[in-house]
Amino acid sequence: MTSADTSGFLSAVRRSRLIAESDLAGWMLANESRLPTSDSNGVAETRVCDGLLSEWQASKLLHGKWKGFFLDQYKIVDWHHTDEARERTYYTATCTRTGEKVLLECVPQSHGTRSDGNVRYNVIRE
Hints:
Number of strands: 5
Radius of gyration: 16 Å
Largest sheet: 5 strands, antiparallel
Number of helices: 4
Strand content: 15-25%
Helix content: 25-40%
Distance between the termini: 37 Å
Strand order of the largest sheet: 1-2-3-4-5
């Protein structure tokens, strides 16, 4: 996605469901005067600064990726680290039901998936 493709970025935000449509519409109305009209990087940066998206989420959305931000009731906020020896990837996430912040340990698909086709994962609570 080019930096001039603001409509593509906004479409990815909507499709991702990371921001509720009502919140997105309200935010856009309230910030209309300070939004860049043709620079999706500027729009993404504004959303990160306002706490609506993490930098990791904005980066994925800027590249047109809008899937994979949710695992069951967990909204993935950021990539944490990859443990190559154990073949696990870790993400910080928030439970959409309780707001609890957790770490998700994701098992690669080469090690099998769940019956619903999603990746297997463990929830690590602090």
